[in-house]
Amino acid sequence: MNSTLAEASSIARSTDLLFGAMLLLCGVMAIGICFVLLFFCIRYRAGNRKVDRGVVGRKLGVELTWTLVPLALFIVIFTWAAHDFSELYRPPADALPISVEAKQWMWKLQHRNGKREINELHVPLGQPVKLVMSSQDAIHSFFVPAFRIKQDVVPGRYTTLWFTATQLGEFPLFCSEYCGSSHSQMIGRIVVLAPADFGRWLQAGTSQPSLAQYGYARFRQLGCSGCHAAGSTVHAPALEGLLGRTVHLQDGRTLVADENYIRDSILLPQKDVVAGFAPVMPSFAGQVSEEDIQGLVAWIRSTGGPQGAPR
Amino acid sequence: MSYLDEGHTIKSWLTSTDHKRIAILYAISISVFFFVGGAAATLIRLELATPAGDLVSHDTYNRLFTAHGVIMVWLFLIPSIPSVFGNFLLPLMIGAKDLAFPRLNLLSWYLYVAGGVLVLCALAAGGVDTGWTFYTPYSTMFSNGYVVLTLFGVFVTGFSSILTGLNFIVTVHHLRMPGMGWFRLPLFIWAIYATSLILVLATPVLAMTTLLLVAERLWHIGVFDPALGGDPILFQHLFWFYSHPAVYIMVLPAMGVASEIIPCFARQRIFGYRFMAYAILGIASIGFLVWGHHMFVSGQSMAASMVFSLLSFLVAIPSAIKVFNWTATLYKGSLRFEAPMLYALGFVGLFMIGGLTGLFLASLALDVHLTDTYFVVSHFHYIMVGGTVMAYFGALHFWWPKVTGKLVPDLWARIAAVLIFLGFNFTFFPQYLLGVAGMPRRYHQYPPQFQVLHLLSSAGAVVLAIGYLLPLFYLAWSLRYGQRASANPWDARGLEWETSSPPPTHNFTHPPQLPERVYDYDPTSPRAVAQ
Fold first, then answer.
1. Among A34, B91, B321, B491, which is disulfide-ready with B96 (CB 3.0 to 4.6 Å)?
2. Residue A183 sits in which domain range?
3. Closest CA to B97 of B529, B511, B527, B519
4. Any CB–CB contact under 8 A between B472 and chain A?
5. Are residues A24 and A146 in the same domain?
6. Are A184 and A232 members of one domain?
7. Is residue A238 classed exposed, middle or buried when 0-12, 13-18 and 19+ CB atoms within 10 A define those classes?
8. Does the beta-carbon distance from B138 to A138 stay under 8 Å?
9. Cα(A178)–Cα(A4) distance, rounded to whole angstroms?
């Protein structure tokens, strides 16, 4: 199946190993049961005169065996699969952030330096990449078969996905959550370049400000800096280095500040008020675009902090 | 006088409160929907024979797969075995004269037909392009089809399910013949009973969800719309809270059918009767706790995904027990392979493949790659079509003599059973491979590297379609020219065989004899060949 099913990411190998193990286990079970079924069908057919028949009574031992053995096997598989799964959602702290916006029916991608692409994503070989994704309309799903990754892209919130490409080349990108008329045309490709080539590609032909610069400009234009900048008279939390930090809230909860927390704080500021601050911030819903929020997040990311927060 | 001779006018049928006549009404209406849904499936497979999307437009294609899903799920699979065979057999199998609420039963049928007609109206008016899952915000904000009308049809049909379930539960509790304890119930009754519990407990959630969706679409109340503080993932939770148990509404009755047919044609007691009954209850109850396994990549929390994954593995245990027990029932039996047995064995095989591939999807890391691909499409078709439809056809052939008083021409029936089994595998096995290769579902056009497998699948669908059409002819033929059936042509145990074929209006002319134990077959004294 050419490049669709290459093992082109760091987790593809372990996913395939699990798949192989499942195929072996389930295959042996299926073939075994089919064999027994056919064997009984032939041996105990009504026409066969040379066979011992009789009413079969209860066999508690047999029943317990075929209940408990699969149970034990299933727990092993569950643990294995759950372990691999948790890896899928733990991006390394140094992962290269790229923002993804899905809309009917295209993928819009933006690199940290502001370079944009549509339905095509260039990434460097061997470096972890973290996608911060949101949707403008319906639910979409970012699916790269060759990387064995998929994540729904949901309006109103960020979902994230990370991978490390391990093979040079081009790999198909699909939308796998049904999203209307041209769902099947919402496809693109991931282009994996050698790091040096990627660096050259990234620099070529960009004159736009970086996403973080854009975010910082919006930070000032929208008046955020009036309260959040150091030395401001209004008492508001400082945002530098926020991403990935643990935040204590007024109602006693704590959470780790991730992209969704920042997004919610802009759109629904009364939801998670930081301890020690008055809930005075107005909602910016309707005043900021998806791109603005992505920019603001990028600016906060550029100010440092622990980052790479778990989902 | 049989129930069929009670009156020959249309009115005598449409106003009948006899559970057997209502079962026939269901059978006829369900068959109509099966062939409408099947026609949509045929068009889908024809379209997918080439990668270009050149047969129908993308909007038409989206409406076709939505129509196929909505019709097959709500108007065929869910009502199929319970409403036709549950209705016909439940009172007979427990020695009762009718269901507990005969008029409510007739109302259920009218609601079912009304809901079905509404859905057909929505289709005729232009259809709906959301997919049968109606995911928000697509269905509330972007879909350009007749979403509200379709949902209203589904809503009305849901009440039919609830009333039928209620009726069955009360009947099983109150109308069992004297001396028939719970562990003397045939497994088909256990299955129908457990199914009814799911119908009554889960369907109201569907009703609520459809109402919320309609309100959201019409008045933007903001339950699901993130711009208004709603949550699109909430819809998925509500939807799957009904729709996952719905899978067990489809497959538990099918398991019940297999548990009647296999002992009869193996002349052997069902292996591990009590484990089988407990497994039915286990599947029905754990089945309520696994809905989140449809949402591993939706953005739900990792902890939630892990719990749902573990529970999904647990629900596989009682399902595995059932497959093992059916197989063990053949041991030391005296086996005959008339059409009902072929369907039942086909059911076991296909259900097993569907179930085992379900484990791939329950495995979190694998689900990430496989979900929303053809692997899922194939998996649920193996369970729902390979399982439920095979069992429905098995039941149709097994109880046809009881229902109509006529025997089925066995050679034709066997040919159809084999064609359906082969056609089914030919259609859906390639789809597993497509899914593993990364082919997303619900694609009107697709990259050319997937064509070979799609073409195989489409070719298989032709065989399958022929297999499904055959019974239409030979069953109709048997009504007119078929041999008369005796009261018990298969020499089966079970009270429904104690009365004449077809049964009299009030089921039994004299009270049936309660057997010593259920499935009292003896393989050392094989039955005479069906007359």
1. B91
2. 1-35+64-208
3. B511
4. no
5. yes
6. no
7. exposed
8. yes
9. 20
Per-residue pLDDT at A207 = 66
Is the minimum CB–CB distance between A267 and chain B shorter than 8 Å? Answer: no
Instruction: Evaluate whether residue A57 is within a structural domain.
Output: no
In whole angstroms, what is the distance from residue A200 CA to residue A204 CA?
A: 6
Distance CA A23, CA A219 (A): 53
Q: What residues in B contact A30, CB-CB < 8 Å?
A: 352-353, 356
> Are A152 and A11 in a shared domain?
yes
Residue A86 lies in a domain: yes
Out of B143, B331, B450, closest to residue A56 by CB: B331
Residue finishing a domain among A177, A208, A239: A208
Taking alpha carbons only, the member of B357, B476, B310 closest to residue B408 is: B476
What's the rounded Cα separation, in Å, for the pair A192 and A190? 6
Q: What is the CATH number of the domain that holds A9?
A: 2.60.40.420
Q: Does A214 or A286 have the greater pLDDT score?
A: A214
Instruction: Clarify whether residues A142 and A255 are in a common domain.
Output: no
**B window 344-363, beta carbon within 8 A of A:** 345, 348-349, 352-353, 356-357, 359-360, 362-363
Q: What ipTM was estimated for this complex?
A: 0.92
**Percent of chain B beyond pLDDT 90?**
91
**A264 domain-assigned:** yes
Instruction: Please tell me the pTM assigned to this model.
Output: 0.91
Tokens of A150: 């998929």
- Domain assignment of residue A52, yes or no: no
Please return the burial class of A298, using the count of CB atoms within 10 Å of its CB with bins 0-12, 13-18 and 19+. Answer: buried
Nearest Cα to A239, choosing from A272, A267, A271, A216? A216
Nearest CA in chain A to B526: A46
B135 touches chain A (CB under 8 A): yes
Q: Which residues pair with A45 in a beta bridge?
A: B335
